[in-house]
Model the fold of this input.
Amino acid sequence: MNAPSQECRAFLRVVESFIDGELDPAAIIEGEHHTASCASCRERVMLGRAMKASVSHLATSPMGDDARGRLRNALAAEIARTPSSPKRAPRVRMVVGSIVAASFAAAAAWLFAPRIGTPNASLAEAGNDDVLSELVAEHVRPLPLDGTDIQTVRSLEQYVGVPLRQHFPASRAKLVGARILPFQHERAAIVQYELGGTGPGAPRRISVLVFDPRRIHLAPASDIAQQLGRHEVRMTRAQGLPVAVMEDEGIGYALSGDVDEKQAMELVRYVASP
Amino acid sequence: MFFRSTRRTDDAFLDEAMSYADALHGVARRMCRNEALAEDLVQETLLKAIKSREQFAAGTNLRSWLFRILTNVWVSRYRRASLERATFDAPDVDPIADGWVSADTMRNLREPEELAVASLLRAELERALELLPEDFRMVVLLVDAQEFSYEEAAAALSVPTGTVMSRLHRGRKMLQKVLVEQGRALGLAKAEAMADSTPPANLEAFREKKLRGTK
Done:
């Protein structure tokens, strides 16, 4: 067989970086140009990639369920033993949505802070991102429920510290159930509903996070505030879904689901006490 | 994002750390060659991460950080204290790059027609991976299996990027050499003339040489 040409030798000096995607774009183009016309170097690259894939396959070794369970327990025990030192979440500034008629002064103020008083140390552990992301994640991929009838749902109040009830009339949405959602040292409840109707995507689902706003502090940095009767509702998004946040008579609510902002705003009016 | 990031909660940290358990285990399993030791290594790694979680800067690369801890734990607790890991010399001859393997041979090695042959080659590659010196094996696992960039691997191993490239090159050469030899034995590779007839160094030869040198 023929010895490698000078061009081949130059390519072979960088072939591994080429295979690993570590070359700059110009060198990659040059390498592609060379391999297009050189069968030997092309095979060299393909063999290198095949070997990478084989090594990757050999190193794919998921933990067994038992081992994973033991590991998680050990880590959770360590977390319980050494909780993070409490730090106050940075205070965030609200930005006014241009389409909202609210005044700049009102928009610059905190929505909840004046009403809920000073948050305690533990609530600062649960930041806005965490709480709302958790709500949406739970909505998208719900875990098994703690209760599926209204009596069991109400029995969860003791864990949340605020009253739980059916938020929508049966004609509007069917109660699916509820579960407790822990946030660091605090707990909230997520109550799930199905909307009636037919057609693509039916039944659409709604999740309502119910929490004690004195303990879990939701203070969106940027949102759209709308007045809904005597309530101010703050509309935002988390992971692509709308979230309507409001407080009513000392209870915090965050509603999200398979709806758009307008529908979320219509639905959240049911959540407020009659 | 509509919300400014706040510090991650312990639970979120636990979930995210656990999401890398399989990746850590895959590397640990290949480094320890023993399931029980691999599980211990992963557990110790993640426990250290949990204990030091407040030092982790949210928004930075948790995966790199975890592999860095794994590497440190591995080096300090699990790695065999052996001379060859630091001084082992890989073969200088690159069987493929030096031009004594044809494109046909490489194609046959990559895509053997018979399933049984493919299985033999895989087994041989697995054996070769286990025989790689640990420093080389770790780099190959990080870059090839975990798709770390050279820079990420260097950070995880606390070595310069050049060292990563050098170990990777030599580790891969050793894997290729075993593969080509096995291919020859299976009749996949032609008896092509070697450009360099120097026999590649091996561990036994190295030990013998060191032994002679110390007498």
About this structure: Chain B has eleven helices and no strands. The radius of gyration of chain B is 20 Å.
